[in-house]
Specification:
The chain is mainly alpha-helical. The protein has 5 helices and 2 strands. 56% of the residues lie in helices and 6% in strands. It has a two-stranded antiparallel sheet with strand order 1-2. The chain is elongated and about 55 Å long. The chain starts with 15 loop residues before the first helix and ends with a helix.
Amino acid sequence: MTKKKDWTLDMNAGPIFVQIAQNVRRALARGDLSPGEKLASARELAQILGVNPNTVVHAYMELERQGVIEKRRGLGTFVRKDAPVAVMREEMLRSAATSYAREIRRLGIPSSEGISVLKEVLDAGETE
């Protein structure tokens, strides 16, 4: 979870704390993080990502507000055992599908063609 290569941060793509929170949710949805698992401290994660520790604190506060993580006094920050992993995964998948559908509509491409291309890309293992 704390390897920089596993994270997507773009200093020009909106608030960094939002991107950090999104990366935590993505790690959970992917199974890289598990309910009950301890997260890196805000200071550690900030150092790894090269951001201000307050930015990570802000992201953690947002995740805590969303019921994804919890702070345990004297122990650190943990993924909640009842974190809504399945819900987050579904929301992320729907968001990606909605973005893709919106783009193929803008291009005037029939949905059958868009689905065919998506399947080809997925089957080929193509990523960013």
